[in-house]
Amino acid sequence: MESKQSFGAYILKRRKELGMTQKEFAEQLFVTDSAVSKWERGLAYPDITLLQNICTILQISEKELLSSAEDVEGRRVAQLARKYLRLIRNYRLIQAILYGLIALACLVGNLAGQHTLDWFWIVVAGEGMAASLTLLPSFSPPRWRGLAALGGFTGSLLLLLLVCCLYTGGDWFLVAAAWVLFGMGLVFGPYALRRLPLPPVVSGRKASLYLAGETALVLLALEINFLYCGVGAWFFVTAASVLLGVWLVFGAVFVRQLPLEGRCGLVYLTAATVLLLLVLLSSCLLTGGTWFPSAALWSVFAIALVFLPLVMGQLPWPESLRRHKALLYLGILSVWLLLCLAVDGWGVWFPLPSLPVALLCLALPWLWLGTLRYLPMGGWFRAAAAFLVTGLWAYLAPWVLDRILLASGIISDQPYSLAIRADLFCWTDPALITGNVLVLIYLGFGLAALLCLGVGLWRRAKRNH
C-alpha cells in the first residue's frame, strides 16, 4: 500500500470524480464524516474490513485502491474481454441468421417447386454438419469444444446419410452408417479418449479401449454388410479371421496393460491359439467338412513345437519339476504327435506303419535328451555320447524302417542292408557312391565323438593336476 497521503489523495480524487460529498460517502460506508476526512488528509487508514465496500462505492479494483493509482492494464484486459464476448455473441447471431435464411429459402423453394418437402431435409442435414463445426463449438466450454464439434459432425453426417437414403428410396443406410462410425472412430478415437472423463479402471488402458471399440465397430460393419449382400454365412469366418489378425498385431498392446505379473506371453499365445481354432472351426462348418479335429490337433502341435518353451517358462512349476522342463517338453510333444497321427489316420495308416515310424523318429531326440541332459558325466563326455548314439541311430534307422514297411505289407525293391558296400577309393561306380557317402557320415560322427572324448579326458587330466 502506498503512503497515507497518496492513499487519501486517491480516495479524494475518485470521490470528487463521482460527485459525492464526504457525508454521502461516509453514510454509504456507515462511518463518520471525520473518519473519511482523516483518510483523505492522510492521517489514518480505513479499517481493512471496509476495503471491499470502498472499492465498490468508488468503482475501482482493490489493486487500484492499494496502489493509489488506476489499473490501466487491468481495465484494458477487462475491456478486451467484454469486446470478445460481444464478438462471440455477434458471431453466433450472424451464423444463426445465415443458417436460418438458407433453410427458409430452401423451404420456400421446395414447397413452391415440388409442393412438398423432400430435398429440403438434405439441406437441413448439410447445414447441421456445417453448424457443428462453426456454431456448436462456440456454445460449448473450452474443454469440450473439440468433442462437441466431433459428436455434432458425426451425428449430422449420419442424419444426412439417412435423409439421402430415404430420398432415393434406398436401403443402404445401415451399411453406410456402420462404416462411417468405424472410420470416424479409427481417425478420431484417440482424440476422443483423451478428452473423455473415463473411470479410473480404464483411464490407464486407453489403447486397449480404442482397439476393442474399433474391433467391435468393424465386426458390426461386416455383419451388416454381409446381411445386406445376402452372404451372412461368411460372417463367422470373416469375424474370426479379423479377430485373429487384430490380436496377432495388437494383442501385445492389450496384454501389456493387464495385471498379468509376467505372464503376458502366455495369455497372448493362448488367445491367439483359441482364435486360430475358431477360424478353423468356422471354416469347417461353413464348408460342411469333417477335417476340423485333425487341423486343430496339428495346428496346436506346430504352435507347441515353437512356443511351448515360452509357455513352460511362465508357468509356476514345483521345485521338483523345475529341472526337468526339457523332459516335459519332449514328453508333451511326443504324446501329442502320436495323438495327431491316431486321429488323422486311424484305421488307414495308424497304427501301422505310422506309429512305429513315429517312434523310430522320436527315438533320436529322446537319445539326445538322455545323453546331453541326464548322463552322469561331464559335458564333453555327454557330447561324445550324443555323437555316438546319433551315428548309431543313423546306421540302424534305415534298416528298422525297412522292417516296419515290410511288416505293413510294403515291399521295397532295394531293401536296406546293414552290410554297406563302400570303397572310398572308387567314386565312379554309382552303386558305391551311396555307400561311400554313408561311410563318411558315420566316420564323421565317430571322429566327432572321439574328439569330444579326447577334449574331456584332457580337461579332466588338467584339473587333476
Tell me briefly what this model is.
The protein has helices spanning 4-17, 22-29, 33-40, 51-58, 62-67, 72-114, 119-134, 145-168, 173-195, 200-203, 206-229, 235-256, 264-287, 292-313, 319-322, 325-345, 354-373, 379-407, 430-464.
Describe the structure.
- By secondary structure, this protein is an all-alpha fold.
- The chain has helices at 4-17, 22-29, 33-40, 51-58, 62-67, 72-114, 119-134, 145-168, 173-195, 200-203, 206-229, 235-256, 264-287, 292-313, 319-322, 325-345, 354-373, 379-407, 430-464.
- The model has no long low-confidence stretch (mean pLDDT 89).
- The longest helix has 43 residues, at 72-114.
Attribute tags:
mainly alpha; 0% strand; 465 residues; single chain
Low-confidence runs = none
Strand-residue proportion: under 5%
What is the average of the pLDDT values? Answer: 89
- Total count of helical runs of at least 4 residues: 19
Dominant shape: elongated
Main beta sheet: none
- Give the radius of gyration: 44 Å
Total number of strands: 0
The sequence of SSEs as H and E is HHHHHHHHHHHHHHHHHHH
Structural class: mainly alpha
Helical amount among residues, as a percent range? over 70%
Distance between the termini: 95 Å
GO molecular function: DNA binding
Keywords: DNA-binding, Membrane, Transmembrane, Transmembrane helix
Protein name: Helix-turn-helix transcriptional regulator
Transmembrane segments: 93-113, 119-139, 146-169, 175-193, 209-228, 234-254, 266-289, 295-315, 327-349, 355-372, 379-396, 437-458
